[in-house]
Write a structure and sequence with these properties.
The structure is a single chain. This protein is mainly alpha-helical. Helices cover 62% and strands 0% of the residues. Among the domains are: 48-145, no CATH class; 147-186. The radius of gyration is 45 Å and the shape is elongated.
Length: 212
């Protein structure tokens, strides 16, 4: 009986030894496979801080550094686009009417149409409470987070164009053209031709007549 137990124990030991290489191989394969995926994800052939996989996805060159470029002109460099999960080829990733760069600056999400979930798109919000929504301010080139920037643009435009133009064009033109023309042409012409010609002619006739 003891002999049988020893044989059984030896058999189990042999089976365990035979199974070890398979387990080790499986672990090694999994490790290599995971390492391969990690390497592919982090691979950066042009050393610009952007994974090749991400650059390929958005059709960015792998031959030139892309980290500091801004192909969509939204104010975000490609490194920031990568960090913020935005599209480096689309200025307004979420399509809410406000560019990615402005959304990051204002604190709204460039990947969510309605960041605060209040039922109003970020572009329709009025961040600085100046009566003009964010999308319109961006279109007009004003700062949607600065109320004074919007007022400054409005007041100056009205003051410079309206009042100043009226003063220079209306009043000055009236004084110079109207009164000046009247004084110079009307009064002078009346006095000079009348007095000079009339006085000289009358005096000559009287002297000539009296002498004869």
């Amino acid at each position: 009986m003891t002999r049988i137990k020893l044989i059984a124990a030896a058999a189990l030991g042999i089976l365990a030894l035979l199974a070890l290489p398979g387990v080790a191989a499986a672990k090694g394969h999994g490790h290599r496979h995971g390492h391969k995926n990690l390497t592919a994800k982090k691979r950066d052939r042009n050393h610009d801080g952007l994974p090749d996989k991400w650059e390929k996805r958005f059709h960015l060159s792998l031959k030139k550094k892309q980290g500091k470029k801004d192909q969509d002109h939204d104010g975000l460099k490609n490194k920031a686009e990568f960090s913020d999960h935005t599209n480096p080829r689309k200025a307004d990733t979420d399509g809410d009417g406000v560019g990615d760069g402005n959304e990051v600056e204002e604190g709204t999400s460039p990947t969510e149409v309605d960041t605060d979930n209040d039922g109003v798109d970020d572009g329709a919000e009025d961040a600085d409470n100046d009566g003009v929504d964010n999308a319109t301010e961006e279109h007009d080139g004003t700062d949607p987070s600065d109320a004074e920037d919007g007022d400054h643009q409005g007041d100056n435009a009205g003051g410079d164009t309206g009042d100043h133009a009226g003063g220079d064009t209306g009043d000055s033109a009236g004084d110079d053209t109207g009164d000046g023309a009247g004084d110079d042409t009307g009064d002078d012409a009346g006095e000079d031709p009348g007095t000079s010609d009339g006085g000289s002619t009358t005096g000559t006739v009287e002297e000539h007549t009296g002498g004869d």
